[in-house]
């Protein structure tokens, strides 16, 4: 029988040859991952996060690693993915995690993906609008979407990078240019507005946020964020003061966090939570679950604008049905006109960035 000493020498020998399981180190392993007796081909979806080492990317990667619908998780960024990948890769949940660093590895990160989540780009500092991020983030989103068009044209894309009201039209134009555009598969993530609206409305009504459903339509910046308090579930009435307070607080939720962080970025943890809630809904839709409905900023015919956020039904092909606004009260009708004016400019700015 093997003595304890012999056993520990044997284990030390194996450990010395085992490297962290990421794509940068596998070549140098003596015991390659291919030689391990790991279970292969687990059912589930392949998900890539672009911008995975950032403030949103890291907690988002952690939460996606915990999602049982995910079998493979690719983490791409221009910095720090080896560390994030090694760290998250040790979690004893099902998804296999692989890291990809820098532009030369973008194509490998994207090949074969079912869902691509994009939180890459710079965040706001106090005093900035989301539109102030356009100059840097527009180019980042363009490059990443060119990669998607080339390597995983059928993937569902969840776009988080701001300004969402312009980055979604940018992505659409990139895909059109590449001949791969499917409007159903491109979704701007406005879930954080819904998460905030549910929280703040629940506070006012004295309910648990899980019991509350607030549709938030329009876009994802200031007055373009339009909560429809007249359609809150459970049916509720609000005084004019409550309506004004809730609408403003939901519209300014992002700025509230930017100011509280005082130069250290914008919402990351609540955004990662919201992104996972939305990604999970997309994956349930892909799986064929019935009745998966969430708000998102998508190609739309609900208004005269080419993109608009409303409730959408998520299915195997993405946003399979885009729901109408439903009846609005006078306060919401005025808000809608203001939202559409700003949205039209932001959409046009995104379109012109690619067409110019
Ligand atoms: N849609 C929404 O509701 C929200 C959107 N955001 C937006 O999400 C974006 C990211 O925010 P944070 O994670 O806080 O920023 P961050 O600066 O902490 O992280 C961004 C990450 O993107 C990476 N990155 C930069 N260029 C890249 C490229 N070409 N390819 C891949 N990765 C690249 C950076 O290296 C960094 O790790 C910002 O634009 C922010 O405004 C933030 C909160 C809510
Ligand atoms: O406010 C920002 O810059 C980030 C964001 O989009 C949000 O928190 O809603």
From TrEMBL:
Substrate binds at residues 124, 130, 162, 196. GO terms for biological process: malate metabolic process; tricarboxylic acid cycle. Residues 46-188 form the Lactate/malate dehydrogenase N-terminal domain. The keyword Ligase does not apply. One of its GO terms (cellular component) is chloroplast. Pfam families: Ldh_1_C, Ldh_1_N. InterPro entries: L-lactate/malate_DH, Lactate/malate_DH_C, Lactate/malate_DH_N, Lactate_DH/Glyco_Ohase_4_C, Malate_DH_AS, Malate_DH_type1, NAD(P)-bd_dom_sf. It is an enzyme of class 1 (oxidoreductase). NAD(+) binds at residues 51-57, 77, 137, 160-162, 271. The keyword DNA-binding does not apply. The active site is at residue 220. PROSITE patterns: MDH. Residues 190-353 form the Lactate/malate dehydrogenase C-terminal domain. Keywords: NAD, Oxidoreductase, Transit peptide, Tricarboxylic acid cycle. Its EC number is 1.1.1.37. One of its GO terms (molecular function) is L-malate dehydrogenase (NAD+) activity. CDD domains: MDH_glyoxysomal_mitochondrial. It catalyses: (S)-malate + NAD(+) = oxaloacetate + NADH + H(+). NCBIfam families: MDH_euk_gproteo (TIGR01772). Homodimer. Belongs to the LDH/MDH superfamily. MDH type 1 family. This is Malate dehydrogenase. It comes from Populus deltoides.
């Amino acid at each position: 029988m093997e003595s304890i000493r012999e056993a520990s020498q044997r284990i030390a020998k194996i450990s010395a040859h085992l490297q962290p399981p990421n794509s940068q180190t596998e070549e140098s392993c003596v015991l390659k991952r291919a030689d391990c007796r790991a279970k292969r081909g687990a059912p589930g979806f392949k998900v890539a996060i672009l911008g995975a080492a950032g403030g949103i990317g890291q907690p988002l990667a952690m939460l996606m690693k915990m999602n049982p619908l995910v079998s493979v998780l690719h983490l791409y960024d221009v910095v720090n993915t080896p560390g994030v990948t090694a760290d998250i890769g040790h979690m004893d949940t099902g998804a296999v995690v692989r890291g990809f660093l820098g532009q030369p590895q973008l194509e490998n990160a994207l090949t074969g993906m079912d869902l691509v989540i994009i939180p890459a780009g710079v965040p706001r500092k106090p005093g900035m609008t989301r539109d102030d991020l356009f100059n840097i983030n527009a180019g980042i989103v363009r490059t990443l979407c060119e990669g998607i068009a080339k390597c995983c044209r059928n993937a569902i894309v969840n776009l988080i990078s701001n300004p969402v009201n312009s980055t979604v039209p940018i992505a659409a134009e990139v895909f059109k240019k590449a001949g791969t555009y499917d409007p159903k598969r491109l979704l701007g993530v406005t879930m954080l507005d819904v998460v905030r609206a549910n929280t703040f409305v629940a506070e006012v009504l004295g309910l648990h946020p899980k019991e509350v459903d607030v549709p938030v339509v329009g876009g994802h910046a200031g007055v373009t964020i339009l909560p429809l308090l007249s359609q809150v579930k459970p049916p509720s009435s609000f005084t004019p003061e409550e309506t004004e307070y809730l609408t403003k607080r939901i519209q300014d939720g992002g700025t509230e966090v930017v100011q509280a962080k005082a130069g250290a970025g914008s919402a990351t943890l609540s955004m990662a939570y919201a992104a996972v809630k939305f990604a999970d809904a997309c994956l349930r839709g892909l799986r064929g679950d019935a009745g998966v409905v969430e708000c998102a900023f998508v190609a739309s015919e609900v208004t005269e604008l080419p993109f608009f956020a409303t409730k959408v039904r998520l299915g195997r092909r993405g946003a399979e049905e885009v729901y109408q606004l439903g009846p609005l009260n006078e306060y919401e009708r005025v808000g809608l006109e203001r939202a559409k004016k700003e949205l039209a400019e932001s959409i046009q700015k995104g379109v012109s960035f690619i067409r110019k």
